[in-house]
Amino acid sequence: MKYSHESVAAPSLGSQAPTPDEKFAELKFRRAESMKMGGHAAIERQHHAGRLTVRERIEKLVDASSFREVGTLAGTGTYDESKRLVSVTPAPYVAGLAKIDGRAVAIGGEDFTVRGGTTFGSARRKGGQGGFIEDLAHHYRIPLVNLIDGAGGSVTSLKRRGHSVFPGVHGFEQSVQLLGEVPVASAVLGTAAGGPAGRAILSHFSVMVRGTSQIFAAGPPVVKRSLGQTIDKNDLGGTKVAVDIGGTIHNAADSEDEALEQIRRFLSFMPSNVWELPPVTECNDPVDRMDERLASIVPEKRTQAYNMHRLVRMVCDEESSFEIQPSYGKSVITMLARLNGRPVGFIANNPMVYGGAMDVHSARKQIHFMELCDTFHIPLVFFVDVPGFMVGLKAEQEGTLREGMRAVYVAGQLRIPTITLVIRKCYGMAGMATCNKNDVDLKLAWPSAEWGSLPVEGGVAAAFRKDIMAAPDPAAREKEIEAEFKPYASPFRTAEAFAVEEIIDPRETRPVLCEFIELAEKRLRSDVGRKARYGVQP
Length: 538
Fold this sequence. Notes:
Layout: H1 20-35, H2 40-48, H3 54-61, E1 68-70, E2 75-79, E3 85-90, E4 93-100, E5 103-110, H4 132-140, E6 144-148, H5 157-161, H6 173-178, E7 184-188, E8 191-192, H7 194-201, E9 205-209, E10 214-215, H8 220-227, H9 233-237, H10 239-245, E11 251-253, H11 256-269, H12 308-315, E12 322-324, E13 332-339, E14 342-349, H13 360-375, E15 380-386, H14 393-397, H15 400-411, E16 418-427, H16 428-432, E17 442-445, E18 450-452, H17 456-463, H18 465-470, H19 474-485, H20 491-496, E19 502-503, H21 509-533
Parallel strand pairs: 5-6, 6-7, 7-9, 8-10, 9-11, 14-15, 15-16, 16-17, 16-18, 17-19
Antiparallel strand pairs: 1-4, 2-3, 4-5, 12-13, 13-14
């Protein structure tokens, strides 16, 4: 909803009941006051800091002219001695209904130009700390987009309210419930702490901007007071910490425009709610396309790395991939893409980082992505090249085994169709986290595949240690035993026993996956439709 930014004079209302014309004049004036936000100087400071205003962000993100604002008149009026309205300071939050790619969304964000986006003390909140915008997403079953640029509550509210409130008065109940109902996407576009920071975490997808965005439980002043540490806000909660190291926020962007585009890309894969299926788009990439480069992408030397990102993109629809958490837990790749226009989640081990071994960070990353796909009925495809859990002192100190087994647990709870394709290695308990035993348990493999509890080399060294050490030439004896066992590790021996369902030519990967994903969509449509009719959550 757009209103004029031009200056409008305050209505002159007499002591008598206002006429219809006077009421319209007051409405026009109040609307104009809301469009001023925090005033020209505050808007200039926002721009000078390299940040857009909340209205500019909404305008860039949503479909043209689709924003229907709610709560335009909320704020604090200033009146003269005759009780006549002089000015209005708008509430520091802008919210309403809009469309993204033609689909309805609930959208809201703090207006940092008004009191730094701090909480507005009204009986009902517009958003930021729960309130109307979350209710709108919940009751109409539409995605929620949070544009976060505020620190939530302020200590000044103590004096205004006259007492302190117990944590949870304005709780996160609705925020938590929404995670099981509709897609929630958050962009941290300024400094976020307190409640807004918490809600950024309670999202299916989050993004922040390098250099101009920070997020933390508490900012530098609180850190200095509590711990005596002096630290810059970027060093405390910038993208290097929050995205790359901590994984607190999923993705980083180089600009606000890019961050908003990532929100659009993410939502393009999502259904409007859990009672619907993800949108299928038109695909011009042939289903039967067989890329010859796949036949030679895996090196003959088993310890040599290769580009798994490239492999995934050679199989999925062209220009359809969208990676989530690309700079965190990099030994696994989590990517949304399409196969013949149908949304698919790809989980692929990355041999360029730790040889593809699962560490504590990649385990957490895989867990989040599996839960995301499971919630919104997006079939999963595993491209497996995992030698096992990360080992060593650091891995044990970080609790890799616990997080790795949690990944196994979540994989064992999946309700969505899942395909496992072993590209090269699939060993140990980490290999268990790539299979869905609740589904048909379809396991495919390339001829380069190998699997087991552990590789022949390490297994021989452990099982035959005494024999090897007693030999005149221990190294030669170890090689001799390995050669004896090596033929049994052939994937074709496993296929003979139907312990792997099919070994395919790498060039057949796209046609095979497209066919099974089409079947998966038909099954999901039946399941979701049946559950929606009975009014239960899938």
